[in-house]
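Course assignment 3, question 2. Fill in each field.
Student: A.L.
Task: Predict the tertiary structure for the chain below.
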Amino acid sequence: MTTGKADWANKDYYAELGVSKDASAEEIKKAYRKLARANHPDSNPGDTAKHDKFKAVAEAYDVVGDADKRKQYDEIRSMPVGGFGGAGGFDLSDLLRDRAGGSGGGFGDMFGDLFGGGRQRGRRARKGPDVETGATISFTDALDGVTISLRLTSDSPCATCGGSGGKPGTKPHICPQCEGSGMVAGSVGGAFTLNETCPACGGRQLVYDEPCPTCLGSGRGQSARTIQARIPAGVKDGQRIRLRGKGGAGENGGPAGDLYVTVKVTPHRLFARKGDNLTLDVPVGFDELALGADIKVPTLGGAPVTLKIPAGTPDGRTFRVRGKGPKRADGTHGDLLVAVKVQVPAVLDEATRAAVEAYREATAGKPLRGNLFEGS
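Answer field:
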């Protein structure tokens, strides 16, 4: 059933559906559902009259059930009859071709035809599925940002049927369970209902008697691809990054889903991260803390800096080296936090042992733990 655009002027789709020209969208939808249910071929096998009626109401709903098509239909129906064709008139197909941007192609190209070729009625554009993956990057790449290659296997429209779910060469019909709406009412308890995707057509609104042999009617398949993904600077270990439009392909012109990348950051041999700053533990000797010292400490990706340790510095004290941390989003740099840690030698030579014993004798009258027992 292929309907030319010029036929709109000669067909009263409102009368076909049994509604007035001023009927609301909801009234039109209810009328269509009632007539489609009563005249559906599956419910009336062998009844040619009802089969024809079903096609007629489907054609009518194709037009007046869509706001944009209905507007064009109403405009065409309001034109004078004498204005179509003929030497002194104009060609309706040319008019509609101009309104459609000059693409032409007839009614089937603009609106589709459920029972013939062209785009099928009711095929909703649907967003593709989101995809989850993981990536491991180095400590420095996490600070600076990096572009990585990701090999993805994701859900996509079936290559055999193009996502329709039907066997190639077969034609669909309106889903009898949802009557072409793609949704059914599901009870959530009591008097309340909640619309949910139709289980029979999967929300596609159309069903095929013969499913696609590749996807078995699901309309979905698997695809493998490699993409380049940008991991932003400052990402933390375990952080989940969202990359818009990098997920599975959409259906019927719908947008692609999103890609979620969980990032694992490999620890650095020396440095760790604390907010916008870097941390570094530096081994020192007891004498350096007791007497004071100037020591060199490394920086990440830069030249070493000299750190001045005052005499009498306690073990574990943290020194701040400003501007030697990671780069922030605003272009400034965080700090390097250096903690000094006393290292006790596991083995002492004779000279060192003698020196330590002499120190013990010199401080024997100054117990360090006396206050632990006061008031006990």
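Instructor remarks: The two ends are 101 Å apart (CA to CA). Residues 125-159+222-267 form a domain with the HSP40/DNAj peptide-binding domain fold (CATH 2.60.260.20).
Grade: pending
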